[in-house]
Design goal:
By secondary structure, the chain is α/β, with parallel strands linked by helices. The protein has seven helices and twelve strands. The protein has a seven-stranded mixed beta sheet with strand order 7-6-8-3-2-9-10, with helices on both faces. A three-stranded antiparallel beta sheet has the order 1-4-5, with no helix packed on it.
Length: 245
């Protein structure tokens, strides 16, 4: 009943994020008043929305092992994905979440499924412990399914949401509809600071390449434009001095 064939190889953008250890993915969502009518929500629901979803990007079920298709003794197949997080992986993304909340309105919502998942139990324990270092930040623990419901019911209640790779992926797409379209959302992915103090980073719209609309003159550039706007005013390019964005 072993795994059949090689494990799925990381490729493209996912491989780049993983190899650079860009574990902190920031996805801000703030609707534009001119586009309130493009959302499926009433204007009064989205008017005051200004939130950030912080996604852990290098761990969890997308990278956990074992992974693959098992061939069972009776010849049938079974898909296997493994949700796994170390304490260190949780610590660094949750601490980033507290730091982000401290720089904003001081509210952090930590999302997991501790009611049914052991990784969620550990996630909640680590978040609770780190909260002691950030007494000025209000911490709320919330189950992922409830968070999805709350994003529909009252998205303006959120400031910073921190979640694992899978849950934050789903919730940030949902937040895209709060802004009217997934094409409205920018993102920035960061690793730990380098010895010179700079952080390795990738800036990209949340929607990705969207190959299904390539060549159809339908692409929404706002997510890409806002991703560029998230860059520092000045960027240091290796061996090329300093250049402005």
């Amino acid at each position: 009943m072993g795994l059949s064939g090689p494990l799925q190889e990381r490729s493209g953008l996912s491989r780049l994020r993983y190899d650079l250890d860009l574990y902190a993915n920031l996805r801000p969502a703030k609707p534009f008043p001119a586009l309130f009518d493009e959302t499926p929500f009433k204007p009064e629901v989205v008017r005051d929305v200004d939130l950030v979803i912080l996604r852990e990007l290098c761990g969890g079920v997308y990278f956990g092992l074992p992974k693959g298709i098992q061939v069972l003794d009776d010849g049938t197949r079974r898909g296997v994905d493994t949700q796994v997080y170390s304490e260190a992986e949780i610590q660094r993304i949750v601490r980033y979440g507290f730091e982000s909340a401290r720089s904003r309105r001081g509210r952090l919502c930590s999302v997991e499924k501790s009611n049914v998942m052991e990784s969620g139990v550990l996630w909640r324990e680590v978040a609770t412990r780190i909260h002691a270092d950030f007494p000025d930040v209000d911490l709320v623990h919330q189950l992922a399914d409830n968070t999805a419901m709350q994003l529909v019911r009252d998205p303006a209640q959120f400031d910073v949401i921190v979640a694992d790779n899978l849950f934050a992926d789903l919730l940030s797409d949902q937040a895209g509809m709060v802004c009217g379209s997934l094409g409205m959302l920018p993102s920035a992915s960061f690793g730990d600071p380098l010895p010179d103090g700079h952080r390795p980073a990738i800036y990209e719209p949340v929607h990705g390449a969207a190959p299904d609309i390539a060549g159809r003159d339908l692409a929404n550039p706002i997510g890409a434009i806002l991703s560029v706007a998230m860059m520092p005013t000045e960027v240091r390019w290796p061996n090329r001095g300093r250049g402005r964005r």
